[in-house]
Amino acid sequence: MSARIIEGKPVSERVREQVRQEVAAWVEAGNAAPGLATILVGDDPASEVYVRNKRKACEAAGMQSIHHELAAEASQGEVAALIQELNGDPAVTGILLQLPVPPQIDGDEMTGLIDPLKDVDGLTPINAGLLSQGREALVACTPSGVMELLKEADVELKGAEAVVVGRSKLVGKPVVQLLLAEDATVTTAHSRTRDLAEVCRRADVLVAAVGVPRLVNADMVKPGAVVIDVGINRVEEGLVGDVDFDAVKEKAAAITPVPGGVGLMTIAMLLANTMKAARLQAAAKA
Ligand code: NAP
Q1: What is the distance between the alpha carbons of residues 16 and 249, in angstroms, rounded to a whole number?
Q2: Residue of 119, 121, 204, 242 marked active site
Q3: Residue 118 a catalytic site member
Q4: Is 98 known to be catalytic?
Q5: CB 196 near ligand 1, within 6 Å
Q6: Which of 77, 175, 238, 271 pairs with 134 at a CA distance of 20 to 30 A?
Q7: Residues of the chain with pLDDT > 90: what percent?
């Protein structure tokens, strides 16, 4: 039997529409429209496209887009000064430093300078720490998108065996924390995991965030599992995920496609985070 396909499009459109309505009500109540500041250092073409899409989505949701571009040879001091300026600017609700940054700049250190209440990417140590303590936080966008898809697909997480392949700060680790918060029993696998196939076969819910095309094959999937593919890999035929979609869909109960799955959720969750940041900042001032 072929798996149910968990499509990102309707879920991301619903989240975007919800945010648009929230922003309208927020402004109607006399507040300034939330402002998302994007910082692009250098001229990496992929990053340019990502930032352009984020800005467009932000405007479509009724928010202000405030964009800053720095030259590829910008110094760390320049980036730091811009972040500090945006931290102090009341028109800026959220700050997004587009990663990766050029090699002379320490992306972790710069991200760490962002005011945690404006950290709409959820990557500062404060927000990562709050998340790991199960406290209110701005959560990284792609992991939030994974959870939104699981919720939409009505996947039972309480007590479920979840396996997350990948332990990055951006995806794997926050997904682990979010699954734990939903009472799943979570195993984290990574490049040093001894028998990856055996570990993956335990999973009722399998999340792949690896960056290796089609690493997860049908032999690694328990019949009836729910498989969430975060991977975006460019190969000759186009974009593919970390899961061998065609084979795994014959074994899983539900699966996200690539493209058209998790990838569509990231910007939607960024907008949701920016609205959330506006509320958190207002509450902190009250
Ligand atoms: P990353 O920082 O490179 O982390 C990859 C993780 O996978 C690491 O923890 C690594 O283990 C593990 N890994 C690598 N090879 C492995 C193998 N053969 N077996 C088991 N584990 C292995 O990547 P990332 O930023 O988390 O991104 C992962 C994927 O998601 C990429 O394809 C990326 O393009 C995609 N992505 C998509 C979105 C989106 O949908 N919008 C957003 C972000 C990322 P070690 O820790 O041991 O090195």
Answers
A1: 28
A2: 121
A3: no
A4: yes
A5: yes
A6: 271
A7: 99
